[in-house]
């Protein structure tokens, strides 16, 4: 129980960070038209020195990208937007597809616990790949109802280095933090809490996680 409370708090913290990141992107987009108006006016008045200073200042505060993913669910939007932005900055191909059921079988913190952990692991795996080829590493994610289950699928390129525990489950290859290795366990625990399950396929060049959670039935 203590471990569950700890992971719940970690997921709440992750959720808060992701939402704040997305709010920052939304704020910059909101201010974008104002920035253009200032630049236009400085050009019109030929205030080129001021213009140069203004543009330099804005370039320092400009996010590398500001995609705003819209799926109809604000938490999923925030997570995907945040991870998509990070992936782009690391030259990682990021593909996603989202079809949501009328009622999600898990709450916002649990969504963050599953999707946030899986995508963090995917990004880290892609960053650690030795890039000898021109093709960038890839992350593919989809969420959709499948029969009577909510299916979360995350697939990423992988360097193919895995460690296993005595029970056959994957172990973390990370050693520098006490939280390392708990991500997949957290995902599995959330799925099983809702009578679902988690399948992991660790291949030579790819790592696939499929999470299945029973959809809520109408009463």
Mean pLDDT: 79
**Strand and helix order:** HHHEHEEEEHEE
Name the beta content range: 15-25%
Overall 3D shape: globular
Helix percentage: 40-55%
Strand line-up of the largest beta sheet: 1-2-3-7-6
The secondary structure category is alpha+beta
What is the rounded distance between the termini?
30 Å
Major beta-sheet overview: 5 strands, mixed
Radius of gyration: 21 Å
The count of strands amounts to: 7
Low-confidence stretches: 175-180
Characterization of this structure:
α1 packs antiparallel against α2 (48-61), α1 (2-44) packs across α4 (108-127) and α4 (108-127) runs antiparallel to α5 (182-193). The strands form 2 sheets. Strands 1-2-3-7-6 form a 5-stranded mixed sheet, with helices on one face. Strands 4-5 form a two-stranded antiparallel ribbon. By secondary structure, it is α+β, with helices and mostly antiparallel strands. The longest helix is centred in the N-terminal third of the chain and has 43 residues, at 2-44. It is built from 5 helices and 7 strands. Helix content is 48%, strand content 20%.
Topology:
Blueprint: H1 2-44, H2 48-61, H3 74-89, E1 93-98, H4 108-127, E2 138-146, E3 149-157, E4 163-164, E5 170-171, H5 182-193, E6 197-202, E7 206-214
Parallel strand pairs: 1-2
Antiparallel strand pairs: 2-3, 3-7, 4-5, 6-7
Helix pairs in contact: 1-2, 1-3, 1-4, 3-4, 4-5
Summary of the model, kept short:
The chain is of the alpha+beta class.
